[in-house]
Amino acid sequence: MSASARWSIAALVVLVVLAMGLWSQLGSGDGPTSTPESVSARDRRDADTAQALAAPRARADLAPCPSAGPGAGPEALRGIVLECAGDGADVDVAAALAGRVTVLNLWAYWCAPCAAELPAMAEYQRRVGSRVTVLTVHQDENETAALTRLAELGVHLPTLQDGRRRIAAALKVPNVMPATVILRADGSVAEILPRSFASADEISAAVDPKIGDA
Q: What Gene Ontology molecular-function terms does this entry list (predicted)?
């Protein structure tokens, strides 16, 4: 092999190493959102039986999921039935959101920006009261881990267990977490926000102009 050929091969190896390093940095998740893990084929693990979840549910002490409202609810969500993480009850998602201004917060227990944002969501809910429903959607099949994380954070918002991420797929939410979807009372999507929030003030600034006098 000639000297020039050896130098060409060496240069190619260096370029490949540099490209791999750049790819690693871009995919490291250091920004405000984390890319979700692969989508599960089920909503929760086999290990997350009602008996196994009893103690984590008691510690999390989540607020009840919304009951059915007036009307059919958001068209894109009709036919989706998920488990309420707080008590294990089935929730017809579209019916539960019917007639309500809703902030859907999509998250997963392993997502660090999600954990930082959830207390701000809880504070926003406290401020707006019954005018707006803040409903979190856990997008990983490990329901025990979700309940444990919420208990650690002291966040008691109503939560849907959505390991297959059916809500995100139905509403065409970008594949990042956390993400927030603002739904008007008529079921239409006011905005999809694939970003994290650091405070209730930031959430209010982003959400309130979209819902008007809810």
A: isomerase activity; oxidoreductase activity
